[in-house]
Specification:
The chain is about 10% helix and about 40% strand. It has 3 helices and 15 strands. The mean pLDDT is about 85.
């Protein structure tokens, strides 16, 4: 105790707890009891409990290329390409970034998403990334250029829905991916080029 007979105990909930651990902690609560020993005599307080609050948070997709019905919308090249989805987690109203909290991305169509890669892993899996110091987490979605013709045909013109879920409060955000095949090609224009002079000359081939 200090000169006024008071002391302080700091109770901390560590960052990075799983959703299950946080749920269990909120259910059981944190109980405490103070005791003081003087001249062999122990004095104890009544048992009290620390209130545990679940913060209100915002889960935001940063700078999506398109927004349709409040749903971020991305376009993937079915011949091989990638997009990056950046999600941010912050406290509502105060807008304080929340770090070290897992955010997961999961596709609804497991069969088609298995043809994709998310951060180097199969798109059919639940991919989890923890927020960094600025409260953001990134997911790189790739259509491998090594897909077979049949696999590319299966993805062509498909609209795939994925769900972002933050594990602090369970807030969700749906994202849509439109797969389009934009295969480069060279077409010859049906104009016959002029004959070349063998002794020297030039002509034009239009493409």
């Amino acid at each position: 105790t200090d000169f006024s007979g008071e002391t302080t105990f700091i109770v901390t909930i560590p960052e990075g707890l799983t959703a299950k651990e946080r749920s269990e902690l909120k259910r059981t609560g944190i109980n405490y009891q103070l005791s003081y020993v003087e001249k062999g005599e122990t004095y104890t307080s009544v048992i009290k409990q620390v209130d545990i609050l679940t913060p209100a948070v915002d889960l935001t997709v940063l700078n999506p290329p398109n927004l349709i019905n409040n749903r971020p919308f991305y376009t993937l090249n079915g011949e091989g390409g990638n997009v990056v989805v950046n999600a941010a987690l912050s406290t509502r109203n105060t807008n304080i970034s929340i770090s070290d909290q897992p955010i997961q991305l999961e596709f609804a169509n497991k069969e088609l998403s298995a043809l994709l890669l998310v951060n180097g892993k199969s798109g059919s899996a639940t991919n989890i990334v923890s927020t960094n110091a600025t409260g953001t987490a990134g997911f790189t979605i790739i259509v491998p250029s090594s897909l077979t013709a049949a696999q590319k045909a299966a993805l062509k013109n498909q609209k795939l829905t994925a769900t972002l879920t933050e594990t602090l409060t369970g807030k969700k955000q749906e994202i849509q991916f439109n797969v389009q095949s934009t295969k480069a090609a060279i077409d010859l224009i049906a104009i016959t080029p002029k004959a070349l002079n063998l002794n020297g000359g030039e002509t034009q081939v239009e493409v």
